[in-house]
Amino acid sequence: MTNDELLRRSLAAVWHPCTQMKQHEAASPSPLPMVPVVRGEGAWLYDADGRRYLDGISSWWVNLFGHCNPRINAAIADQLGRLEHVILAGFTHEPVVRLSERLAALTGNALGHCFYASDGASATEIALKMSFHYWRNTGRPQKSEFAALAGGYHGETVGALAVTDVALFRDAYAPLIRAAHVVPSPDARQAEAGETATDVARRAAAALETFLAENHERIAALIVEPLVQGAAGMAMHDPEYLRLARALCDRYAVHLICDEIAVGCGRTGTFFAHAQAGIRPDFLCLSKGISGGYLPLSVVLTTDAVYAAFYDDATARGFLHSHSYTGNALACRAALATLDIFASDDVLAANRDKAQKIAAALAPLAALPEVRHPRQRGMIAAFDVATDDPAFPHRFYRAALDAGALLRPIGNTVYLMPPYVVDDEEIALLGRAAAAALAAALTR
Ligand SMILES: *Cc1c(COP(=O)(O)O)cnc(C)c1O
Q1: Are 110 and 44 part of one and the same domain?
Q2: What are 427-430's contacts with CB under 8 Å, separation 24+?
């Protein structure tokens, strides 16, 4: 199909995610382009005319080692010739076994039991259900409520929305949702004069302590996005918060769920973000990058203690949750190939160097009067833009595409979160595209 044909037919037949479809009308006050992509290579996406865009947001935070990565492609092709999928109840296969063992090993075997699903929201719901069911099986069914951080995002199914505190995604469905208790975020942007990020973390932890002291008897778990709250606008916090939250959860017998769907797999500089706080959660949710950005896969890892509470002669004490594609063999193979790249290429070390280049590429922007709170954690760099123009995100997005980069602000927060295969020149290009888009979006 040609570009035009792809566009026209997509807008007629495909209901696109996270989109007010009318904004794709040219006559819309702030029109959104639709980019037809026919192929990808490395950090680049190509349209039918050969125009290309540098994928500065890893295609919604999923891609790690580039589009059409030869090593991941080869692993999937090999798996395709053996087994594409099989029921995981009563059956098993090598990719799911190997992946479970390798993920457990990456947690120092503290989280040695892997439960699979196909997307992040389902992983969130699995962790919530498992936590509640653990307390029920251990004689404390009144622990049936959850605590979540202000601005937190854990997916958009009805159950996951209960712990998601993003008004735009949640408010329309409020009557359907049994909302969690929202506790203050340790977002370092809240620092008052003279306060450090650690001070903000301690302040938020003190609020958590007050909340748990009063409510712990009905709280099953606290769910957090460690170090970076992505959908909140790349809100970053000091690891001190995670250390204090872990201690409070232990003190009040509340599970700690780390949602590393976005921040896992090396994004923040360590393979798991929670490792920077020297803690382990009771539940760890992974998705997005785990399959290299290739196939829908999510996994919840948990401890021996949680697992043991379900291990029983009674069927109903088991965790009877299921998804049709649980432990899909192709997705698990893609994940194994992804872990192989981490193991053989010393990706985390290479990323430390790339993270510095990203910082350098954005440094000139930090000096602009409209740019606030420049911040970075590993391969995620962000800043806020002081403007009251409601069309800013769309204007920036369009201008970045014109400059050859896919950069999609969250509200007034601009961020770079490129695949780990970006080279120096591509990083520099992202910096130039962000600068050009900012200049264009701020001129009326
Ligand atoms: C993307 C995301 C989810 C939801 O994952 P989906 O696959 O989109 O359902 C949950 N939590 C976090 C932190 C995410 O970034």
Answers
A1: no
A2: 427/354, 427/357, 427/358, 427/361, 428/357, 428/361, 429/54, 429/404, 429/405, 430/54, 430/56, 430/358, 430/361, 430/405
